[in-house]
Amino acid sequence: MLNIGIRAHDMEKMSLQKLAKSIKESGFHTTQLAIGKSYPELYTGYGCLSTGLANHIGKAFKENDISIAILGCYINMIHPDDIIRDKEINKFKEMLRYARDFGCSIVGTETGTLNLNGGYTLENHKEEPFLQAVESVKQLVSEAEKFGVIVGIEGGINHPVHDIYKMKRLLDLVNSNNLQVIFDPANFMTIDYAQNQAQFFQDAFTLFGHNITALHMKDFIIENQEIKIVPAGQGILDYEALFRVFKPAKPYMFSLLEGATKEHVKTAREHVMNAYEQVNKKC
Known about the structure:
single chain; alpha/beta; TIM Barrel; two-stranded antiparallel ribbon; globular
């Protein structure tokens, strides 16, 4: 069975109870929740969390039969300002401490950027930012180990962890079972990979498949010899090839639609489910 969900902040903004109900009515039983994005009216800076707040939010989802697969806490772990970077890391550590009170065991983030305007730069691919990411992840994982929860790292082509080999290296250098991978194949996509997606999926799985705890699912097209991200079902990502690799080895793994907003959510879900069923028929 495909354990399919959606990022809560891709839904329309609404109250806590209505959001959980809307996710259920859209055909999902799990979600990725970034409380600052779904509930911008809440103060979500360092020190905002408590057992009471986490239980209050978690209860609303549980009452609607929605599990919180991942708590999104996206930080810039390689920020060049030490003070700002430490604040970001402390914010993530706080989420790790309260994750279980939400009813969740995974807190997820990307690996940041040196571009202080919020975008990405090829400077991120250099060795120094990668090693800073390793050091930051080690700090996060050390906290996760104390509370029995997981740091979920999501790589991407513009990040310090910009290909599957850097992801493998990060895992080896940190060397902890409390570090796992949120694998988004579109994030790593290149023109070359697009020509042989089945091999790319297999290569990624061979390198760190046992460390993959969840999938992010979106799509891509090639426009002017560049990869452009689009919602699932609107591009050329070979979901059948993806599921041929992951379905037998990762049953019931959380698989979360990303970027599937109101106008795309139904077709995105159907596209992914149909691909999964096609693989089911051939197994």
